[in-house]
Structures are given as C-alpha cells and as structure tokens.
Amino acid sequence: MAEVRVVIVYDDNELKSIEVNDEELDIEAIREVPIKNWFQALNDRSGWEGLHDEIIKIIDDENDEDEELEYIFAFEGAYDKKQEFTECMVKYGFSASCIMDDQAIIQQKLKEAWVAEKLGNYKEAFECFKEAADYGYVAEAQCKTAHYYYGVYKGTYDFEIQTEEALQNAVDYYKKAAEQGYTEAQYWLGRCYSLGEGIEQDYKKAVEWYEKAANQEHAGAQCQLGICYYCGDGVEKNYEEAVQWYRKATEKGESPAQYCLGICYYYGTGVEKDFGKAVEWYKKAAEQEHVESQYQLGGCYYDGTGVEKDFGKAVEWYKKAAEQEHAGAQCQLGNCYILGNGVEKDFGKAVEWYKKATEKGESHAQYCLGICYYYGDGVEKNYEEAVKWYRKAAEQEHARAQYKLGNCYQYGFGVEKNVQEAIIWYLKAAYQGDTDAMNMLGQCYELGIGRTADSENALNWYKKAAEKNSAKGQYNTGRMYYIDKYYTNAISWFLKSADQNNADAQYILGQCYENGFGVNQNMEIARTWYKKAADNETPSPYACYKIAEEFYKQIDPNSIVRTGAIMAVSVLVPVTNIVTAPVGVLGAAKTRSLKYKKFLETDDGKDMLKYYRKAAGLGHEDAQKKLKKLEGYL
Question: In whole angstroms, what is the distance from residue 23 CA to residue 18 CA?
C-alpha cells in the first residue's frame, strides 16, 4: 500500500497551498473557490479535474497503477473549515481510504511557536500556539495560549486585545488544559480562582486545582497550597500543614517556598522559632533573586537578627532588592544614607532612593522625603514640598506623616495656619497609636489650643500615651497629677519616665525629693536625680542650673552652706583653703575677685562653669547672666 501525504493550508477564507508528498500542487484555479467545489472538475478553462484526479496526476509517476493508496491528510485552518473539508471527503469517497493527521499540523505549529518565541517574535509565537490549541485541543498549546493572554492582561504584551477580554480568554484556555490534567494549567487556574482574576474569587476551588497540580509535584502549586494552609484560604488554617507543603516545594528549589519557610522560622509558625534558620532560608531564596527575601535578609543584617549585625551586608542586600524595584528596600537604602549605616552618609543619595520608592506609592518613603524637605537634608528646605509629601503619606494612613502634617497646620509651616485642621490630623495619628499625637492632643486640651481648656481630657490623652510606654506621656501624666498635688500618683509616672531617661522627669523627681513631695525628703537622692537630668543626652536646663548653683554656694559670700557636697563621694574644698591673702591687705573687691578666679581654676569651678554653660546654651536666662559674670573673672 502506497502512502500519499497531503497537507492543505487554508487561512482567512482563502486556500494558501496544497502539498502532495512534499510537491506543490497548482491551486490557482481553486484558490478562491469554496471547499465543496475542490472535489469536482471546474467548468472553465482552468483544467481543474477535481482534487482526487489532480493528486493522481502528481503520484502517477511514483506508484504502480494497481497499487492501493492510503491518503493521509493534514488540514491547517479554522475548525469549521476543517469540518467542511472532512464532510466533503466523506461525500466524495475518501473516508474509507484516508486518515486525517491532526498531529502533523499541531506539531508543525508548536515547532513554529517555540522557534518564534525563542527569537522573541512573541506575536507570531502566540498565534502559532493558539492555532495549535484550537486545532487539536492540545493541553500544552492551550496553556501557552493562556499565558500569552494573561501577559496581555498584565501589560507584558501588546497584541491589540482588550485587557478584560484577554483575561477571560486566559482563564478559558487554562480551564481547557487543566481539565486534561496539564499541571501547569491547573496551577494557573488555581491562581485565577485565588486572585479572582477573570473568574469569581473562590479559595476552595483554588485549593482543588492547587492540590491536583501539587500531587503531580508542581513546586509552585505546592508552595501556593502551603500559603492557603498558612492563611486559612479555602481550607482550615494549619501552620504545620503549610510547612509540610513549603518543604516539598523547597526540595525542588522553589524560591518563594524558601522565603515562606523563612517566614515560618522567623515568627515560629508551624515550627519552633529560629532566627538563624530563617536567615538560612531567606539567603537560599535571595541568592535566586527572590526580591522579598533579599529585602528581609537585608533587614536581618541591619538589626542583627539571626546573624551578626552588619550594616555593610544589609546595604548589599537592600541594593539587590532595590534594583529589582522593591519600594521598601529603596526606602531602607535612603535611611542608610541618611544615617551613614553601611555607607558614607549622603543626604543627596538618600533623597534619590526615597524618590524612587515614592514613585511606587511607598508611604514611608513619602514621609521620609517630607522630612528631608522640612529640614533641608539633601534638598533645599521647602515647607510646601514637605507638606505635599506628608499629605501623600498621611492619606495612606501613615501615622507619623499625619502627626507631622498636624504640626505644619498648627504652626503654619508650608500651609496656612489652621489649628482645627491640625487637631484632625493629630486625631487620625493618635487613633493609629502615635504617642506624639496623643501628647499634642493632651497639650491642646491642657492649654485650650483649638479646644476649650479641659484638664480631664488632657490627662486622658497624656495617659493614653503613657500607657503605650511614651516617656513624654508618662512625664506629662505625672505632671498633671503633680499640679493637682496627687504626689504619689505623680511619683509613679515620673519614675517610669525617668527610667526611660527623660530629663524633665529626672529633674522633677529631684524636686520631689528635695521638697518631700510624695516621698520622704532626701537631699542626697534629690542631687542624684538632678545630676542624671543634667548629664542626660538631652539635658534639663533647670537641672544644669541647679547643679551649677550647688557649686556656686562655695564662693557665694551670702551662702550659709560652705562645704555642701554635690556628690556623696566627695566633699567640696572649703573656701578657707582657696583664699590665702588677708582681706585687709587686698581689699574686699580684689579679694572676692581673687577668690573667684582661684575657684574657677579648681575641678569644682570648672564643673560649675560646664553646667552653667549647658544651662545657658539651652536658653536659661539666669544661667546666661551668671555665666557672663563668672567669665569676667577668667
């Protein structure tokens, strides 16, 4: 039996070619003729004798006249045209002796599609995959066709197809392939159900399709199934089950699963908390360019979580994520340049990174950029620009930006002064837990700023901040109790604030111990608190002045105390050891001048000047006057 292979290419209602055993058949006579007329002779001058006879003309020289022929037809064209061609074959007697070879067309189209895709001819690849998918319902081609439609929806490809139409087509083709058991399509169909893309969101159906693909060892589906168990989407929440699926996916090197397993170790969900193992899994994923893992790994190095703190490595990983357009990493890089952590301090570069992050709507970067404009760090100071960026972040519910925007309205920086508007923003920030906003609201009620003065409401807001461990809120709460002479309550809050190194609280505790308010009077403990307040990183000017005055008592002729110790460990040098010349010889004024000069040369004198200078520098007027007088003796 001789085999005759006939390949017919038909497109756009026009015959393109007919090959018989790889030899082109002259089709000019029937190129635009309906299919039903190919099978019989045409009554014109073309000489067309019918498809069968035209085929025989070509194969006569190759085959014995009596040899039985087996026709193998491959029809490339729209499905309805293929059906019409098949019906004509039956009508004209071909069906008993021929085979329709769909696979030949399909494989040819798939081959053309893969070649086009490799060359970057994505439109051509898409068309070939779609023809193969429509022609033979091949799952591979259907899934690839769906991928291209989904790419159109996501903006990856521009094929002049409406995005919603593209998404719907993507889901349809995923379904066709998934129902044939194609794992990749099952996974993507699960994603469509999970995200509600092109189909009504249904987590249970998403899980069904993920399970089908996961049980066929699809790593992405295993990871997504783990996420469903982790979040309780479509299944009952089960961290241990989530971890099992993550582990299955990590065995195949699936980077999102490695990241998810890192999260589990970081927070101790489904496994025992272990920062070190979290870092290990983040690193595995980060080295595969998983952007979120790079960002998280940068954070671990920055904070020293699960790994030795290393700002340099933190910056290295933040940069990798930032270069993949991770907004959080870009913002963190900006912070590193602001603080000089892991890089040389550079406000200009910080602003550059903040701006990149703001382009993606990153609210914290918007807030940070507002700070830069407010203080003129890396950009020219511009309150209006600061307000603009604060507002963008504040409208995204960024609490600190809301607080700062409230400040701008309260004091008229970059915007017309409006206390009522300020209070609105303070309230928004306070309800999100911002303690500075709570303290400001307390101040507004205490002083009657934009509100009727109301000490009870003031105390309520101060206490809200205090209960959130705000040192300032604790001090203000204590201060309100102190004013009302509830000294025991006041002392309790002052101690909490002082333990957080609040200088104002430390100073007022000194006052309480000096005067016996709420505690037993004890000058030694009072001096200890005054000294802490004066030596604080942000010292109390009143405490500095108080310490300086204690020293000054040694040379004050009107002071009764001559040898009072400022520190329990030492006794100050008596004045008689400083002054050596008789008053009658030198005269009172000159003696006083000499006495002062001698004292200022001692360690105590130098300390006295130090504290007067600190107080004066902080705006303490009495300290400024005293300092001017004393420096005249130098």
Answer: 8
Closest CA to 580 of 598, 554, 564: 598
Q: Are 478 and 444 in contact (CB under 8 A)?
A: no
Q: Which residue has the tokens 């004890």?
A: 522
Which residues, including other chains, have CB under 8 Å from residue 90's CB and lie 6 or more apart? none
What confidence tens digit (pLDDT) does each residue in 429-478 have?
999 999 999 999 999 999 999 999 999 999 999 999 999 999 999 999 99
In the predicted model, is pLDDT for residue 104 greater than 90? no
State how far the Cα of 515 lies from the Cα of 232, in Å rounded to an integer.
61
3-state secondary structure of 73: strand
Reported as a pLDDT band with limits 50, 70 and 90, residue 531 is very high
pTM for this predicted structure: 0.76
Q: What percent of the chain has pLDDT over 90?
A: 73
pLDDT in tens, 546-576: 999 999 988 875 654 333 334 333 323 233 3
What are the tens digits of pLDDT across the range 368-379?
999 999 999 999
Q: Cα 338–431–384 angle (5° rounding)?
A: 45
Residues in the chain: 634
Residue 343 contacts by C-beta under 8 Å, 6 or more apart in sequence? Answer: 311, 315, 336, 337, 349
Going by the DSSP 8-state scheme, the letter that residue 234 receives in this structure is S
Q: Is the dihedral of CA 73, 77, 83, 85 positive or negative?
A: negative
**What is the C-alpha separation between 414 and 375, in angstroms, rounded?**
12
CA distance 255 to 219: 10
Do residues 314 and 336 touch, judged by C-beta distance below 8 A?
A: yes
Residue with tokens 């995005």: 163
With contact defined as beta carbons under 8 Å apart, do 296 and 318 qualify?
no
Give residue for tokens 């090959």.
19
Tally Cβ neighbours within 10 Å of residue 224: 26
The two most distant CA atoms of the chain are separated, in Å, by 156
**How many CB atoms lie under 10 A from the CB of residue 91?**
11
Tokens (6 digits) for 295: 């960002």
CA distance 397 to 390: 11
Q: Is residue 581 very low, low, confident or very high in pLDDT (cuts 50, 70, 90)? A: very low
517 Cβ contact list (under 8 Å, min separation 6): 482, 487, 490, 491, 511
- Residue 352 tokens, joined: 């550059």
CB atoms within 10 A of CB 530: 28
Describe the strand order of the beta sheet including 2-11 as a list of residue ranges. 23-24, 14-20, 2-11, 69-76, 98-100
